[in-house]
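Look over this entry.
=====
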Amino acid sequence: MRHIPTLTGLAALAIAATVAGTSAAIAAGPAVDQKVDGVIVVAGSTCTWTNASTSAVPPSALTVDRTTINAPGGNLACSGGITATLNNNPAFTFDDAGAVARTDAIDITGRQSFISCRYKATNLVWDRNGTTRKYTNRAFTATKTSGSFLCPGSVATPAGDASMLFH
């Protein structure tokens, strides 16, 4: 079926977009505002957001407020006719000595036309870029929790396909 590659891209885009960050690496300077930006490119589509609120500043443990990512309170937008909605407030922990961040779970719904797919990934690991607060994902797999029979049962996101930037 011709739509399956698009649906696979939709699912990967949806799960990774919620915890991604801007592609421009900038160091976390002395003025931090407890925000995180995101971007991911999957199957030719791009999802981005800016200035989502966090509960603390890294390296303190924090959560990201989904209401500041999802519309109408946030500005999550995707190209290619895809929409995404974050269903949880992801929790992050940071290990500065190890230059990594960890996310407990990401629960995302992606929609394209009339097809909706919901996926969840757990225990995601992100590598820090030098001394900045930009983190790039390690490979992870999200499992379908609900949605159309046209949605793949799981979606793999390769290492480096998502990043996030805390500021």
About this structure: Residues 1-7, 10-29 have pLDDT under 50 and may be disordered. The radius of gyration is 15 Å. The first strand starts at residue 35 and ends at 42.
